[in-house]
Design a protein that fits this description.
mainly alpha; 3% strand; globular; 69% helix
Length: 181
């Protein structure tokens, strides 16, 4: 698949997701707060995904590859959190988790912070990604670390180390022993 085909496929996914965005969520009255929190959490994450993806595509089209990679990293984090929430929701629906535990996961996803003042401590994104890879591995019957690898590459590019600086902005010219910027 060419880069142009990948870009068109990404744009199509984005267009399809945009069509599903809700403009309002009606309050759901149940014994548990979880369905309302789940619905609002997923919708907020969908809006975030759409905004980041639109901007990443625009930057990629302009040739601002580093900025596009940095946004893609944020996009991957958001998608992984949404998928993490969905897996817990499946467990809740299947009766493998109590409403209280589901609500706890939703609160972690929506209100947790690294701040020392926060009563809810945020999970490390790598823990979430490793958890998802284990779950995908179990479902597929083989080890899968694709999320970890993809996220790792985007993290490297987002930082000012070799992938983040040299691979995007420099090319070694062996014949002249120089670096072309």
């Amino acid at each position: 698949m060419t880069n142009e085909q990948k870009r068109e496929e990404a744009q199509q996914y984005l267009n399809n997701l945009t069509k599903t965005l809700a403009s309002e969520i009606s309050y759901i009255t149940t014994a548990s707060k979880s369905p309302m929190v789940y619905a609002s959490c997923i919708e907020v994450l969908k809006y975030r995904i759409v905004e980041i993806a639109e901007d990443a595509i625009t930057l990629w089209d302009k040739g601002s590859n580093l900025s596009a990679y940095i946004l893609n990293r944020s996009l991957l984090e958001t998608v992984m959190v949404a998928e993490w929430i969905n897996y817990h929701a499946e467990d809740f629906i299947d009766g493998k988790m109590t409403a209280e535990k589901m609500h706890e996961y939703l609160m972690l996803a929506t209100h947790a912070s690294r701040s020392e003042d926060s009563p809810l401590k945020a999970r490390n994104i790598m823990s979430i990604i490793e958890n998802l890879d284990k779950r995908f591995s179990k479902e597929e019957g083989k080890e899968i670390k694709s999320n970890e690898v993809i996220y790792g590459w985007h993290s490297d590019v987002s930082h000012p180390n070799t992938p983040g600086a040299y691979l995007l902005h420099a090319k070694t010219v062996k014949e002249t022993y120089s670096i072309k910027l």
